[in-house]
Design goal:
With about 250 residues, the chain is α/β, with parallel strands linked by helices. It has helices at about 25-40, 55-60, 70-80, 95-100, 100-110, 150-155, 160-165, 180-200, 215, 220-235; strands at about 45-50, 65, 85-95, 115-120, 170-175, 205-210, 240-245.
Amino acid sequence: MKKLFFKPESLTDTDHKYCSGCGHGIVHRLVAEVIDELGIREKTIGIAPVGCAVFAYDYWNFDVTEASHGRPPAVATGIKRFLPDRVVFTYQGDGDLAAIGMAETIHAANRGENITVIFINNAIYGMTTGQMAPTSLLGMKTTTSPFGRDAKLAGYPIRVGELLATLEGTTYLARCAVDSAKHVLEAKKAIKKAFEVQLAEKGYSLVEILSQCPPNWKMSVPESLEYVRKEMMTQFPLGVIKDKTKV
């Protein structure tokens, strides 16, 4: 009988610590599947920062190093420049990438660093009990915006992909989601393309993935999936934002 399902070699046997309904575990598997399919496990180096992403090195069966909050692009730049034959990627949440690390993100992208970025956007600070993030939607209630995000006080949600698309150094930018089987497959395709861009030495790539965070959103898992579909996808439309490889 043909075996149709198996655990990727790039995943460990460690039980994950993520909350029920969280999208991190799904994305971890997608990254692992892509790395196995591309045959690059022995030369891949991941960078995980502070936040929910910090657990990543427990689950991936390849080299992963930790960076200070917001600093993965700087660490990735140093590793990639010193070891250009390695496949280097960062795995970051929205608080890390779009708040504390926005300057690092902008300048690494603008330089066209030949790295891959996996960006998890759940519109909130997950690990630290649910503070407002740069990607939190207008009206979204968090521990630091208990009456809902107000544009007059906190500005508007930042669309990272569209912002980076204005920079000459970016090559491939896409936004996906993990709320359904269809979107999970699309996310895997985008992640694979991002790694292929790096392997072809074509520069900076980023895949933004909309992910649910039921506990901090104060929702059930089904409710959080509907929130991704009806609210987040309206603010953050899915699709390829920029692809210079087709030019």
